[in-house]
Write a structure and sequence with these properties.
Oligomer: single chain
GO molecular function, one term: O-methyltransferase activity
Protein name: O-methyltransferase
CATH topology of the largest domain: Rossmann fold
Number of strands: 12
Keywords: Methyltransferase, S-adenosyl-L-methionine, Transferase
Number of domains: 2
Shape: globular
CATH superfamily of the largest domain: Vaccinia Virus protein VP39
Order of helices and strands: HHEHHEEHHHHHHEHEHEEHEEHEHEE
Pfam families: Dimerisation (PF08100), Methyltransf_2 (PF00891)
Radius of gyration: 22 Å
GO biological process, one term: methylation
Length: 334
């Protein structure tokens, strides 16, 4: 009984620790401490904070080893805290800030209401996530940074663990700013790419692909995957797309892809695949966010993806582990 109580009390402490970590990320404390220790007063001045309040947060951050004391009322950044710097590979600063974004914070706090009602409290208040982001440019920029950071953690696994056909055309469906497509094309010099996304996104994607020196190997198309995707591709990539939608909409998206692909083409779905066991898993944590933020959005098991694919006229042929909790699901036409 005591062990169970201790575990639950630890969970209660986690929200306070996350709030302190979020404050560190929002105020850019790791960036300010990158060159060496600073006194609390100077640190507060640099990041525009109230020094007495900041001192209390630093005390909590020291307790979780993100900073460490460096003399009277001074603190230094630890190796653990350094991943909150903006300029380091694998930085988690944008991820922490996105989870603390006003709408996301509200969504997680309202999860009990969502579960009671069977519909997302976030959606009732803010509308669909992408509507919320379109109305809030700062949140949209933060979300783009978060997604780009998340993509970087997946790209190595995607480009080294899956054998792309050497001269294929890859259609990146809702490809965002094009970071994943660019990485695949760099790793496979004979391939070409087409990126489709909404009107307000594709201009940024075109800039990204041009900056990567890939303008002559890519085409950027404005469109909505519910109304159609470019035809004739050899591969269709859906990266972090299907988990945003309920089963009915996911099948609609997949059917549109199936109808557009070559008969021998493949669908590649980049998602977290839930395990069948009851062990802790990153996908189960993500699933709570999907439940809170989307009406019907969900992480799914291999069997659930196989069922969706079958309803869309596709057969699951492989699941490739990519690391960082992600998987690449391959499917072909029946």
């Amino acid at each position: 009984m005591q062990h169970s109580t201790d575990l639950l009390m630890g969970s209660l402490s986690d929200i306070s620790r996350f709030a302190a970590t979020l404050t560190m990320a929002e105020l850019g404390l790791a960036d300010q401490l990158a060159d060496g220790p600073l006194g609390t007063g100077e640190l507060a001045e640099r990041c525009g904070a109230h020094a007495p309040s900041l001192r209390r947060v630093l005390r909590e951050l020291a307790a979780i080893c993100l900073v460490t004391g460096a003399g009277p009322d001074a603190y230094a950044l630890t190796d653990k805290g350094a991943v909150l710097r903006s300029d380091v590979p694998g930085s988690v600063r944008s991820s922490i800030r996105m989870l603390g974004e006003e709408g996301f914070w509200y969504a997680m706090g309202m999860l009990p209401t969502t579960v009671r009602d069977g519909g997302s409290a976030f959606v009732k208040r803010h509308g669909h996530l992408y509507e919320h982001l379109s109305r809030n440019p700062a949140s949209s920029t933060l979300f783009d940074e978060y997604m780009a950071g998340r993509a970087r953690t997946l790209i190595e696994g995607l480009t080294t663990r899956y054998a792309f056909p050497p001269e294929a055309t890859l259609v990146d469906v809702a490809g965002g700013k094009g970071h994943i497509l660019a990485a695949i094309l760099h790793a496979n010099p004979g391939m070409r790419g087409v990126l489709i996304d909404l009107e307000h996104v594709v201009e940024r994607a075109a800039r990204t692909l041009a900056d990567e020196g890939l303008a002559d190997r890519t085409e950027v198309v404005a469109g909505d995957f519910f109304t159609g995707v470019p035809a004739g591709g050899d591969l269709y990539l859906l990266a972090s797309i299907l988990h945003n939608w309920d089963d009915g909409d996911a099948v609609r998206i997949l059917r549109g892809v199936r109808d557009s692909m070559k008969p021998e083409g493949r669908v590649l779905i980049l998602e977290v695949v839930l395990p069948d066991s009851e062990e802790p898993h990153l996908g189960k944590d993500f699933d709570m966010r999907m439940l809170a933020i989307f009406d019907g959005g969900a992480e799914r098991s291999r069997e659930e993806y196989a069922t969706l694919l079958d309803r869309a006229g596709l057969t699951l042929t492989d699941v490739v582990e990519l690391g960082s909790g992600a998987n690449l699901i391959e499917a072909r036409q029946h």
